[in-house]
Design a protein that fits this description.
With 328 residues, this protein is α/β, with parallel strands linked by helices. It has 17 helices and eight strands. Helix 8 packs across helix 9 and helix 8 runs antiparallel to helix 12. The chain is globular.
Length: 328
């Protein structure tokens, strides 16, 4: 089973879209024709080492009337890499450019409201787009959903503790693109991918089955047999060690913060074990803007979107109503 045959994805419309960034982006959508200045689009962005397929179980729990756009990040899955450094902001703008080309052009068009929702690397894209929003004539970010991350600056600082650093050993490794690409190719990209999935997932057999449901492990490992995906994802981590950190430091110096309603969801037994997630995000979201932090327990690991799809969707649905972002 894969994106074309899984029941959840079979109801979506696939797209292959060239963008000015040099990346041709593979994506899937639902009900984009119903999007309007009063109907936001929920953009779902995956993380490492996965693809848009991570959202297959979440889809059936989300409100049916909410338009969806689900891309493979440039350099991952079926999307080709950017021509320039894979900063999270540049990746985000490329994704938004792909979406823009799929929306109907209307005279005197108002900006399209969007809700950003990302897991892992995708959440970092959502964070940086919220800090430095896109062209206001095209898009208006009305909500930001960040799943199982803290900012780059916090994550790198946490590595001064050896017991925590070993949990994210791949960060400095992958940031050395040439070395990492050769090592992973030598090991076998599929073997590497499967090893990462097993290492950060939930501890119970049931949770591991949720990650593997629908042939997902085969889908992800299939992509990682390709050198361009190994290299493209390493380029993501390289930017995460330099340009992305510099952007966050610049934002801190400017006093720039997220100024939209924000929902943070994290696995208590994974990220919550290492860091005080709620305290970290309080310093990044503007006071009185609206920040809600939700932890998920039960032994759920980093792949919380797959392991606890129903619970995640429930938190998102409740938050959309409470924050008055979407009540459809």
């Amino acid at each position: 089973m894969n994106e074309q045959t899984h029941p959840a994805f079979s109801t979506l419309t696939p797209h292959t879209t060239p963008t000015p960034s040099g990346s041709t982006i593979q994506s899937y959508s639902r009900s984009l024709s119903t999007a309007s200045p009063t109907t936001p689009i929920l953009i779902l962005i995956h993380g490492y080492p996965q693809s848009s397929y991570i959202f297959r179980n979440l889809l059936r729990h989300l409100p049916l009337g909410l338009p969806l756009f689900i891309p493979d990040i440039p350099g991952y899955g079926k999307s080709s890499a950017l021509h320039n450094p894979a900063t999270k902001h540049a990746l985000g703008l490329a994704i938004l450019a792909a979406l823009q080309s799929l929306l109907p052009s209307k005279p005197n068009q108002q900006p399209q409201p969007i809700i950003l929702c990302g897991h892992d690397r995708g959440a970092r894209i959502c964070h940086h787009l919220a800090l430095y929003p896109p062209d206001p004539s095209s898009y208006k970010i009305v909500g930001d959903i960040l799943i199982d991350i803290v900012p780059f600056t916090t994550e790198w600082k946490s590595m001064t503790d050896p017991s925590k650093a070993v949990k994210v050993f791949h960060w400095p490794l992958l940031a050395n693109v040439e070395i990492a690409t050769k090592l992973i190719m030598g090991m076998g990209g599929d073997v590497w991918c499967k090893t990462l999935l097993e290492g950060a997932g939930g501890k119970s057999e049931k949770l591991r089955e949720m990650v593997a449901e629908g042939g997902a492990v085969e889908v992800y490992t299939g992509y990682f047999r390709k050198e361009e995906v190994i290299r493209g994802s390493c380029e993501d981590y390289a930017a995460g060690s330099k340009e992305d950190v510099e952007l966050e430091r610049k934002a801190l110096e400017e006093g720039r913060k997220i100024e939209v309603e924000t929902l943070v969801i994290f696995a208590d037994g994974y990220l919550g074990w290492r860091l005080d997630v709620a305290a970290v995000w309080k310093t990044w979201v503007k006071e009185r803007t609206g920040l809600r932090c939700e932890r998920i327990g039960g032994g759920v690991g980093h792949y919380v979107v797959e392991e606890a799809a129903g619970e995640v969707a429930g938190l998102i649905g409740d938050w959309l109503k409470i924050a008055r972002i979407w009540e459809g």
